[in-house]
Amino acid sequence: MGDVDAYSGFECHLSRLFNVSLLHLEYRLVPEHPLPAAVDDTLVLYQALLRDGISSSRLLIMGDSAGGGLTLLTVQALLARHLPIPHAVICVSPWADFSSSGESYIRNRLTDVMLHLEGISWGIERVLARLYFSTISKHRFCIKYQHV
Question: Ranges for the Alpha/beta hydrolase fold-3 domain (predicted)?
Answer without folding.
Answer: 2-128
